[in-house]
Amino acid sequence: MIEVDNIHKSFGEHHVLKGISTSFEKGKTNLIIGQSGSGKTVFLKCLLGLFEPDEGNICYNGRFYSELSTKDRRNLRQEMGMVFQGSALFDSMTVEGNVMFPLDMFTNQSRSEKQDRVDFVLKRVNLIDAHKKYPSEISGGMQKRVAIARAIVMNPKYLFCDEPNSGLDPKTAILIDNLIHEITTEYDITTIINTHDMNSVMEIGEKILFLKNGYKEWEGTNKEIFKTDNQAVTDFVYSSELFKKVRQMYLEERN
Ligand SMILES: Nc1ncnc2c1ncn2[C@@H]1O[C@H](COP(=O)(O)OP(=O)(O)OP(=O)(O)O)[C@@H](O)[C@H]1O
């Protein structure tokens, strides 16, 4: 579980995060949404420990980040998996090499232990015959699976995903969403996803945090987002005619 208490972050005069408090439960898929520039990436980077908030606290399973020693921060970092926008695979390494990379960097496991773990996670993301291929030889959806395998190879407690669906066709995007959601439940991970994909919001948003101008404007579940009368949320989420109709149908069905 991650608990966030009143965090602020500025860059010079630019006050980007203006006192955000929330919590993210383990085993749940949490989504952060909001317009471009609302502070989603800065917030995610604070959660990852890449930016230190100017004010406020972030607590990881009872451990306050601000109170951790450098060594404990490094250990905490190893409990975090990250799926970057665009996958960010190493082009010169095979699929297997990419997934093994964190194990090579951060563990003393034997070659066969590492190989077993890599085989296991690649199988878990449904990539069976791609071990020896290079990123350029596989599709964008497969690259995303490799990125997810690499993110979970160290058995993380926390999984962060930045726009995991960007550049994917709608069908592949749904498969990737479902995979992240399944892995989250299966391994009891606290997962936090930055997204613009409204389909993800409706399908896998067990908790949705809506940021606006650096404030938490709204939070709730994908069921609640259909019913909310928060104008900022409805203007943002139901900006397309299609989603307006979906919401209308959902509300009519329940009346
Ligand atoms: N390192 C930085 N230095 C200065 N300003 C920054 C830095 N990182 C982000 N900002 C500013 O913080 C604001 C919020 O940016 P952020 O990237 O968090 O938005 P976002 O909601 O993730 O947008 P998008 O959906 O387009 O990715 C922007 O005005 C941005 O210019």
Structure report:
With 255 residues, the protein is of the alpha/beta class. The protein has two domains: 1-79 and 157-221, Rossmann fold (3-Layer(aba) Sandwich); 90-155, no CATH class. The chain has ten helices and ten strands. The protein has helices at residues 40-47, 70-77, 95-106, 111-124, 140-152, 170-186, 198-204, 222-227, 231-237, 241-253, and strands at residues 2-11, 14-24, 29-33, 55-60, 63-64, 80-83, 158-162, 190-194, 207-212, 215-220. The strands form two sheets. A six-stranded mixed beta sheet has the order 6-7-8-3-9-10, sandwiched between helices. Strands 2-1-4-5 form a four-stranded antiparallel beta sheet, with helices on one face. The chain binds adenosine-5'-triphosphate. Adenosine-5'-triphosphate (ATP) binds next to strand 2 and helix 1.
- Sheet with the most strands, sense and barrel status: 6 strands, mixed
Strand segment tally: 10
Low-confidence stretches: none
Q: CATH fold name of the largest domain, please?
A: Rossmann fold
Return Rg in Å.
19 Å
Q: Give the oligomeric state.
A: single chain
Strand order of the largest sheet: 6-7-8-3-9-10
Alpha-carbon distance between the two ends: 35 Å
Total tally of structural domains: 2
Q: Which architecture of the largest domain does the CATH hierarchy give at level 2?
A: 3-Layer(aba) Sandwich
What is the CATH homology-level superfamily of the largest domain? P-loop containing nucleotide triphosphate hydrolases
Coarse structural class: alpha/beta
What is the strand content? 15-25%
Overall geometry comes to globular
User: Which range best describes the helical content: under 10%, 10-25%, 25-40%, 40-55%, 55-70% or over 70%?
Assistant: 40-55%
The CATH class of the largest domain is: Alpha Beta
